Amino acid sequence: MPAVRGGDGAAAGREALAPGRPASVGGHRVPPGHRGRGHARRLRDAALAHAAAHGVTAVGVDTAEPAGDLLGLYRRWGFADRDVIRWPGKTYDSVVLVRDLAAA
Predict the structure, then answer these.
(1) Measured distance CA(76)–CA(82) in Å, rounded
(2) Do 76 and 42 touch, CB atoms closer than 8 A?
(3) How far apart, in Å, do the first and last CA atoms of the chain sit?
(4) Which stretches make up the N-acetyltransferase domain (predicted)?
(5) pLDDT at residue 10 above 60?
(6) Sign of CA dihedral 34, 36, 38, 44
(7) Neighbouring residues of 46: CB distance < 8 A, sequence distance ≥ 6
(8) Angstrom distance (rounded) from CA 94 to CA 86
(9) Is the pTM of this model over 0.85?
(10) C-alpha distances in Å from residue 36, one per residue of 11, 30, 31, 86
(11) In terms of CB atoms within 10 Å, which of 27, 37, 47, 98 comes out highest?
């Protein structure tokens, strides 16, 4: 999976691509001292553009259900709730959200 990282190391993520199929984007991390500068937005834009250019039809993310701030962010970015799951070995539920790239 290719990694995407800002030149100053401020944001990082990884993506998995399969043409004509959904993809997932995970590992968005912006350290507290770098937040509010658009790093996550640029990472999102690059990942979605890369996925669309490779024929990906939808992109999914998941985050812990208690992480209301992250859920709000993903929803503002056009991701819609798809499912609630509990990953093996975890003690909390995760919300799976999907953004259809054809509608973007």
Answers:
(1) 15
(2) no
(3) 23
(4) 1-102
(5) no
(6) positive
(7) 4
(8) 6
(9) no
(10) 12, 9, 10, 30
(11) 47
- How many other CB atoms are there within 10 angstroms of residue 23's CB atom? 23
- CATH number at 68 reads 3.40.630.30
Average of pLDDT values for 24-40? 81
Percent of the chain with pLDDT over 90: 29
Map tokens 């590992």 to a residue.
Answer: 27
Instruction: Name the one residue in this structure whose structure tokens are 């509010």.
Output: 36
What b/e sequence results for 43-73 when a residue is b if at least 16 CB atoms lie within 10 Å of its CB, and e otherwise? bbeebbebbeeeebebbbbbbeeeeeebbeb
Place of tokens 């024929």: 55
Q: What tens digit of pLDDT does each residue of 36-87 get?
A: 898 888 888 988 888 888 888 888 888 999 999 989 999 999 999 999 999 8
Query: At 20, which amino acid appears?
Result: G
Task: Please check whether residue 63 is in contact with residue 71, taking contact to mean a CB–CB distance below 8 angstroms.
Answer: yes
The token duo for 39 is 């790093």
